[in-house]
């Protein structure tokens, strides 16, 4: 539990990013701003995953040093799985953002606005 709490600054930042992104998504009616809010949520989630897996005295999994944190005779190494998951999430987030922006461009071409309320009125 102590290892978890030593990263409180990063965890607070991650929660703040998710909260700010959620506020943007829920309060805006502009599609572009909603996409930006979703990207902020994605960044906060990635920061949270990296923070959970990080330990200040951990070493790379392929490198063993003697001047690091040793528990029961074993050197603590960083877990590469969360890092690879975040790297994959960044690539997927980039692809979904590009797709969302392409759809937003098509919506603007059809309706002449990116306001969700006006688009909903235009469908009637």
Briefly summarize what is shown:
This protein is mostly helical and 124 residues long. Helix content is 69%, strand content 3%.
What can you tell me about this protein's structure?
By secondary structure, this protein is mostly helical. It has a single domain, classed as Helix Hairpins. Helix 3 runs antiparallel to helix 4. The mean pLDDT is 85.
Secondary-structure map:
Elements: H1 2-5, H2 8-27, H3 31-53, E1 70-71, E2 74-75, H4 80-111, H5 116-122
Antiparallel strand pairs: 1-2
Helix pairs in contact: 2-3, 3-4
DSSP summary, beta strand count: 2
Number of helices: 5
Number of spatially distinct domains: 1
User: N-to-C terminal Cα separation, in Å?
Assistant: 55 Å
User: Which value, in Å, is the CA radius of gyration?
Assistant: 20 Å
Give me the secondary-structure category: mainly alpha
Provide the CATH top-level class: Mainly Alpha
CATH domain topology: Helix Hairpins
- Unreliable stretches, pLDDT < 50, 5 or more residues? none
Overall mean pLDDT stands at 85
Biggest beta sheet attributes: 2 strands, antiparallel
Overall, the morphology is elongated
% residues in beta strands: under 5%
